[in-house]
Amino acid sequence: MACDFKMIHRVDFAHTDMAGIAHFSNYFRYMENTEHAFFRSLGFSIHTRIDGRTYGWPRVHASCDFLQPIRFEEEIEVHLIVRQKRAKSLTYDFVFRRASDPAGTEVARGSLTVVCTEWDAQSGRMRAVDIPEIIARHIEEYPGQVPPASGADQNTQ
Asked: What is the mean pLDDT of each run of 10 residues along the chain (157 residues)?
């Protein structure tokens, strides 16, 4: 069973402002892309059909704290950690670190809560449902505490 997942992202030019610093909105894209890769690593998609039923994972909470700027061409490791698994929802924590830094300097920390929903094609509506067992059995909560922020001398930007 999986409780965490790591993925490397490169800061693209289109993700930066005039100073070459990644725009804050892209941290949420990096979190979402890492979540999608996590699901693929388990053999699923974030938009899954199981036994004729369509499941999705809309967001009900998203946050991010920015500790240091990241810049064009930098590679960032995003560590997804399953903080909480409930019957109908998952809460992830994300730790962003510079991939090129041997000390693993933390540059941001985020959180995302998603709810498992089933989409009804006839009504066009979604409703919260229990996570299907075929998916739930592959995901578990991270044992213990989420890794602490690295270093006490981080600059908040």
From this structure: 96 95 97 98 95 95 97 97 98 96 93 96 92 97 75 37
